[in-house]
């Protein structure tokens, strides 16, 4: 029941979650301080474990590099606090939503994500809220530090020409593509049937004939909370879709709501506890089921739309804006955005199998036949896919990869600006590093601080 909002840059939540899974009894400890910001052993362990999962050999030098990255991030956060930089709460919620959606998709749905980590989505959100807020603060401060960086086409060309010929990077096969998604709707008869059934369960709970916990375990279709008697755990406002939060805020402890509807189906809720803008509630969810007839309707609709597009009577982008049910892409003509780079360009090797095999058979500009798609919540839909761009593996060049080279040139200038900023700020910031790590060879001399030193 996550809010529907979108977009930002690189994220590390999945690896951080995986690294945080307990493998034994570990007593956490402080290993460094930057101003008022502490670095814990667990943070460094999570970073090094993430690097190992990405195939990087983590020796002492590697661990020291990860620690320096943490020192830099804490310096950014510390300076952000001094400068009264505030990360917007809506931005934090949006980023949490986006990351949860992405990682749930990678694991096969929210239920798989919850099963993998042994926590509900709401608990995962609550646990990592501060981490995401800090990451967004880091991004905000990085942008502030490098906001004046600009490169001209001439700068990009000079940067490219200075790369040794044997060091020009190899670019994998990449694609840009767009989709028109149609999610079938349950029939009115099915909607009425499910509404009547959940109303009956609520009435039984209200009369004391059935226990809320029993109803949730036996009948709720929210896999994350059903096995917990329907209980969500303490969640902040904004963690759930607005309709759910609104009902929760209207209830007193122990009170049971009326049946209400969200995009996920029909619910009723019992308030367990409220603490300011946090609450814990039990709920029962029942979803109207979509039959094969509704699926066929959407397949036929897409088949007709594809024919009209192929005849040139309307563009794929215009049809996407008008008919697609994918809220994240319809506003940009159905173009799918790669979440790590926040661009339309996808490395073929990173695509899910359903998408890879469709695109692999298309030529640029071609449109697929309607494709059956299994969504993260295990429901089914149909979509059309259009291949916009397909590049073969090649050495980077100014014509095909200008944006990538431009980003590299900007990155070099940003790196130089960051080096200067760190050196300036370290002179006025208290820094202390645990003796276990004081022997690290850092790019910057973090132990020279005149505001406290080592």
Task: Explain briefly what this protein structure is.
The protein is of the alpha+beta class and about 450 residues long. The chain has 15 helices and 13 strands.
How would you describe the overall organization of this protein?
There is one protein chain. The protein is α+β, with helices and mostly antiparallel strands. The chain has three domains: 168 residues, Orthogonal Bundle (Triger factor/SurA peptide-binding fold), CATH 1.10.4030.10; 115 residues, Roll (Chitinase A, domain 3), CATH 3.10.50.40; 99 residues, Chitinase A, domain 3, CATH 3.10.50.40. It is built from 15 helices and 13 strands. The strands form four sheets. It has a four-stranded antiparallel sheet. The chain has a four-stranded antiparallel sheet with strand order 5-8-7-6. Strand 1 and strand 2 form a beta hairpin.
Relevant terms:
454 residues, alpha+beta, Triger factor/SurA peptide-binding fold, Chitinase A, domain 3, 3 domains, 4-stranded antiparallel β-sheet, flat, disordered N terminus, disordered C terminus
